[in-house]
């Protein structure tokens, strides 16, 4: 069975581990760069992205994380994890913040406001329901949440939500001292997929709805199936006995 890693530097990694356990999957806590070599997919949890980035730097995780994402293995960022995966983040602390990148989008770090403006809402998620069944909606838990302001053409939007009326207006200074409002639309994107990258601004691991975790595990299965077809083999035509033991299927075979 594929090994799911959960980046365990800070934030809600315990909750992701528990959510995986609930669906019979054993997650592996990842704290060191070399541990990424032993996992097939990775969840980057929510928390506080500046702190998480400092810890990731301290443990020299950024190069390995970039390699992991660039190598096409499935990665899911929730909340702070979404910020990590974005190619561009605004509303970050003075002095900047290191990002892993890979996801073609611009994220606002605290789009919905402060901790006090955290909220829960029902999100319309037809594409999730199509794959995983159940209701066309899911519970979205937004904790000092980011949101996605812009996406590139390869990014599929899986959920958006109305911009709450009490959201503080967010401005960024444009260098010459003038303040520019960053967002004026009445809805904002909160879940996306680009190839093997999944990102949600909210926290599915804090609800009992396992569909986002199942959806993510499905991405892992899809990428293994692709590795099989790249070898011109179909997974069903392969006898498990014929497979090399403990060998990643997406590595070239030289022997
Ligand atoms: N719940 C969360 O992960 C919040 C993320 C937070 N806005 C940040 O800057 O990291």
UniProtKB/TrEMBL annotation:
The active site is at residues 79, 203, 205. It holds the Pfam family SNO. CDD domains: GATase1_PB. GO terms for cellular component: cytosol; glutaminase complex. The keyword Hydrolase applies. Keywords: Glutamine amidotransferase, Hydrolase, Lyase. L-glutamine binds at residues 47-49, 109, 143-144. It is an enzyme of class 3 (hydrolase). HAMAP family: PdxT. NCBIfam families: PLP_synth_Pdx2. Belongs to the glutaminase PdxT/SNO family. This is glutaminase. It comes from Digitaria exilis.
